[in-house]
C-alpha cells in the first residue's frame, strides 16, 4: 500500500473580513464603503481593506467634508495614551451621523475643534449645536461656541503664528511654566486635618457673604450660624457640650470667609484659594453615610459657591452639581411636605429643606448654562414648593405665618429669582438638550418670555432700593441687583448667539445680532462704569460674568470687524463698542499686575484690538496681519516680565508651612513644574476674577491659568 505524505492545509478564515482595517481595529461597525463613513468622520484616517479583491458593497460619494490640513489623526487612536480622538468618539456614539455634520477646524493658537452642526434643527446651518475638543464636549450654551465668530481672524493669523521666527509660542511656554510654579504654593498637605485661624476682618467677611451671596442663594440659618461663627473666631466653644468646634462647621466658616473675601477684599485671594482647596480635601473623605445630612448638603453647596467665587475648578462645577442634585433627591428634598421626612418635622426642618432644594435648582440651571451640558432636571421631576417668606427668627416657632408679598425678608430675593426659573430652564433645555429643534421661532418665543419674567422681577425688587429695607435686611442692594441682571442677560445672550453668524449674511436673523451686541454692551457696562467697589467685586467674581466676559469681547470683535468690512457702512463703527475693547485690554493687564497667572486673556485682548484698529485704518491684509502679530508679541513679552518678577520674589522668601516646596525634596522655582497634577487639573478654569478698583495693590485675577483658555490655547504646544 502506497503511503502518501499529507500536505498541511492552510487554515482559512471561515468568514472573510468585510470591514476596513481601521474599523476592525476600533471594533466598530463599518459600512464597507470606500472610504467608509467612519474614516471620513475621523478626518485623516486611511481607509483600506485587508482583502484587496474585496469591493465595497456601496459606492461612497466624494469626501466633501471640510478638514483642516493641520488636523492629523492616526486612525483616531493614540497609541501612546490608548485614547480615541473626539471625532472617533462621535462616530462611535452616532454611527448614523452624516459626515457633513462635523466640521474640523484648526484655529492655530486656539487649537483644533470639532464643530457639530445638528441637521435636526428647523433652521439648517444655523450656528453650531456643540463643539468637541479632546475629551470634552460643550453644548450650545457654552461660551466656547462663540469661537466660530472669530474663526476668520485666527485663520488669517495662523501661518504667522506657526512661523518659527515668531517668539509668541516660546514665550507662552515660559509663561505656562512660571504660572505652574506660582500656583504650586497653594497646595495643602494630604491628608488634611482642618484648622482655622480667623482673619482679622472676619466680621466684615461674614457680613459680605450674608449681604450678597446668602441673599441670592439661601444656605444657612443666619442667626445660629452668626452666633457659632463669632464663638469660633473668638476662640470660644460654639457648644456648651464640647471644647472643640465641629469640623463640619469649621469647614463652613472657611467657605463663608472665602466667598466674602471674593466679594470685598481680593487681597485675601491666596488664603481664600487655600480655604477652598482644604474644604475639597475634607469633603472628599469616603464617609458616605455621613454625606446624607442637611449639614453636608450645606457644606457641599457652600463649596460650589466658593469655587465659583474664588475660581477653583469652576469649569467642572456642573459635574459636582450632578452629584449634589442626586444626593438631595436621595434624601427626598425633591418631595414636599412630610414626604421624605418624619411626620413630626418642625417648621425649621421643612423650610431649610425647601431653601436647600431651591438653591440646588439654581446651581443646576446656572452650571448647565456655564458648561453647555443639559440640566438633567425638569419641572416634572419634583413637587417641592418654593420656600416661604419667613424671617430666620420666625422658624423657631412652628405656628409662625409667612410674611405676605411685598414684605421683604432675607428670603424674598431668592423667591423672586425663583419665579424666573421656568423661563431660564426652558432656555437651557432649548440650547443643550438633544431633543431640542433649535429653530428661530422658538428662540423668539423664549426671548419674549424671558423679557416678561425680567420685567416682573424688576417690578418686585423695585421697593428694595429704599434705605429702610436695606437697613433692615443688611442687603447689598446694588451688588445683588447687578448679579441678577448679569444672570438674566447672560441667558439672553446665549439664546441669540447661535443665530449671530448667519445674521451676517441672512437678514432674517438680524434681530438676533442686534440683541447679542446690545446685551454684550450692557453686560460690560453693568460692571465697569460704577464706582461702587462691592458691585465691581461681585460682578467680576460672579460666575455669570466670568464665563461671559470672553463672549462679550468675541461678539463685539466679530461685529466691529463685520462693520469695518461692510462697504455699505463705509467703515463706520460704534465708538462705544470700540471703547470696550480698549477697556478690556487695560483691565486684563491690571489683573496680571495683581495676582493673575494666565497671560492669554491679555494677549487675546491686545490681538483683537490691534486687528480692529488696523482694519479701520484701511490697511492692506498683510499690514493688518503684521500689526496684529506685533501687538500679540509685545503683549506676551510684557506679561512674561511680570510673572518672572513674581517667581523671583517668591523664591527669595521662605516657603509657606502649608506649601509643598523644597522641603519635599524639590528645588524651588521652575523645578516645581509638573508636580501635583491632580490639583493643577482641579484648578484649570477660564474665569475672570478681579477688583477693578484696587488691582495695583496685588488684587484681582483673570483667566486662571490652566489648559482651558480657548480650551488649550495653542493646544499642540502645551500638552
Shape annotation: globular
Name the structural class.
mainly alpha
**Strand numbers in spatial order across the main sheet:** 3-4-5-6
Radius of gyration: 28 Å
Share in β-strands: under 5%
Characterize the biggest β-sheet: 4 strands, antiparallel
Our count of domains comes out at 2
Q: In terms of per-residue confidence, which ranges show pLDDT below 50 for 5 or more consecutive residues?
A: 52-100, 237-242, 530-535, 538-544, 654-719
Proportion of residues in helical segments:
40-55%
Q: How large is the count of helical segments?
A: 26
Q: Calculate the terminal CA-CA distance, rounded to whole Å.
A: 74 Å
Question: Can you walk me through this structure?
Answer:
The protein has helices at residues 21-26, 37-41, 86-93, 151-161, 168-183, 202-216, 222-233, 247-264, 269-283, 294-310, 317-330, 347-371, 412-418, 421-432, 440-461, 467-473, 477-496, 500-503, 510-525, 533-541, 543-565, 575-593, 600-616, 621-651, 677-683, 715-718, and strands at residues 77-78, 83-84, 102-106, 112-116, 130-133, 136-138, 688-689, 701-702. It has two domains: 21-138, no CATH class; 181-718, no CATH class. It has a four-stranded antiparallel beta sheet, with no helix packed on it. A two-stranded antiparallel sheet has the order 1-2. Strands 7-8 form a two-stranded antiparallel ribbon. Residues 52-100, 237-242, 530-535, 538-544 and 654-719 have low confidence and may be disordered. It contains 26 helices and eight strands. The longest helix is centred in the C-terminal third of the chain and has 31 residues, at 621-651. The termini are far apart. The radius of gyration is 28 Å and the shape is globular.
